[in-house]
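Need a sequence for this fold. Nothing fancy.
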């Protein structure tokens, strides 16, 4: 249970740390339970989405739902996405890319990247009826985290533990941890309203493969920023797939 608690402490800004003291070693395994934290972040976002839609326009409700996840996670993943755009956009070699991503300041690539990310996120979900939008958030958030989590099994960490931002290097999953991660990522797909929408899972899987291949070539591994970026881009590609299927 401490490993699950460590994941909720690490991936959210809710006061789970008050429940028990978690040793630092448990934070090496938090990625296994990343999809499980998605159940919480997606659930809270959709509760706000549906509640707000009763008294506010759908567009405003969606923005409130987006803001909810940002508040719950402390923009953890978005910070990683901005650093990803800055590092790979401005870096010309491995050392320079890693140096830029470690810098806490945001650059022009990061700003522009976040603007396009949020624009696509909002445009895709707002093109769906509010009930379907809520359902795909409940499915897409945990599933995309489960897909993104597999990066630690495919690639080595690109830095050593002392150079890591949070001084933690994630451990590769054991067989049981792998099963837990997959199961907690797949179960939320039951929220999808039609079976045809299951085809959308191919989009984040393809996105994950392309990005991990890209990371391997550029920095010979991954960083924490890469984890946040790959999750958000996998989730965005999932919504692309949903909207395409809905349109047809």
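Here you go.
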């Amino acid at each position: 249970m401490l490993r699950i608690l460590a994941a909720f402490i690490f991936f959210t800004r809710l006061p789970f740390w008050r429940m028990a003291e978690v040793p630092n070693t448990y934070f090496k395994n938090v990625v296994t339970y990343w999809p499980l934290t998605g159940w919480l972040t997606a659930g809270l976002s959709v509760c706000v989405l549906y509640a707000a839609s009763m008294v506010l326009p759908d567009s405003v409700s969606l923005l409130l739902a987006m803001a909810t996840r940002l508040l719950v996670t402390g923009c953890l993943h978005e910070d990683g996405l901005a650093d990803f755009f800055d590092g790979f956009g401005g870096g010309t070699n491995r050392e320079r890319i890693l140096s830029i991503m470690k810098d806490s300041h945001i650059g022009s690539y990061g700003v522009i990247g976040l603007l396009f990310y949020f624009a696509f996120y909002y445009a895709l979900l707002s093109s769906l009826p509010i009930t379907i939008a809520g359902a795909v958030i409940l499915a897409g958030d945990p599933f995309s985290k489960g897909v993104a989590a597999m990066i630690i099994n495919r690639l080595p960490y690109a830095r050593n533990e002392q150079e890591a931002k949070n001084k933690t290097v994630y451990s590769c999953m054991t067989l049981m941890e792998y099963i837990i991660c997959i199961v907690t990522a797949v179960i939320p797909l039951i929220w999808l309203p039609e079976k045809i929408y299951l085809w959308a899972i191919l989009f984040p899987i393809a996105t994950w493969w392309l990005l991990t291949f890209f990371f391997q070539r550029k920095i010979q591994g991954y960083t924490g920023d890469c984890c946040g970026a790959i999750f958000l881009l996998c989730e965005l590609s999932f919504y692309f797939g949903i909207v395409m299927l809905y349109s047809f």
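For context: Residues 3 and 245 are 37 Å apart (CA to CA).
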